[in-house]
Amino acid sequence: MDLAQQPDAAILAVVEPIMDNLMDASTAIDYERHVRDFTERARSVLPASIFETVCRQYQAGKGRFAGRTLVGIFRRPDSVAVVWRQAFTVAPGEFVAELVLVQQNGRYRVDHVMVF
C-alpha cells in the first residue's frame, strides 16, 4: 500500500525513527548516518562539507534539538510531508521541522528535510 494511503500511526511509525536518526546524526555531525535514508536528489544538495558547517552553526546558536510535537501529516500523490513544532536546548521559541518522504525501489527515502 502506498504510504500516503496509510493511517497517521503507520506513517509516523516509519517517519519518527528516520527523523530521530537525522537529528541524532546531525548532533553527532555524522554525515554518512545523516544521509543514509536520503534520495540521490537530497544527497546531491547536501555535500559533507556543507553539512558540517550547518551543524556547527546551528549548535553554536541554537543548541541541540530538544522535543518536537507533531503539527500534521500532508499526503501528496507521490510523497508524504510531516511537520513538527521543534524546540532547541538554547534558543527560545518554536521552530518548524519538516520531512518529505517518498518510496523508491520498495524503500522509504527522505527527499527533503529542514528545520527553520
How many H/I helices? 4
H/E element sequence: HHHHEEEE
- CATH class reads Alpha Beta
Radius of gyration (CA) equals: 14 Å
Distance between the termini: 32 Å
Which architecture per CATH? Roll
Instruction: Enter the CATH topology name.
Output: Nuclear Transport Factor 2, Chain: A
Major β-sheet strand ordering:
1-2-3-4
Strand fraction: 25-35%
Low-confidence stretches: none
Q: Count all strands and give the number.
A: 4
Provide the residue-averaged pLDDT. Answer: 96
Number of domains: 1
State the gist of this model.
Helix content is 39%, strand content 34%. It has 4 helices and 4 strands. Strands 1-2-3-4 form a 4-stranded antiparallel β-sheet.
Please, could you describe this protein's structure?
- Strand 2 and strand 3 form a beta hairpin.
- The protein has 116 residues and is of the alpha+beta class.
- It has a single domain, classed as Nuclear Transport Factor 2, Chain: A (Roll).
- The chain has four helices and four strands; from the N terminus they run ααααββββ.
- The termini are far apart.
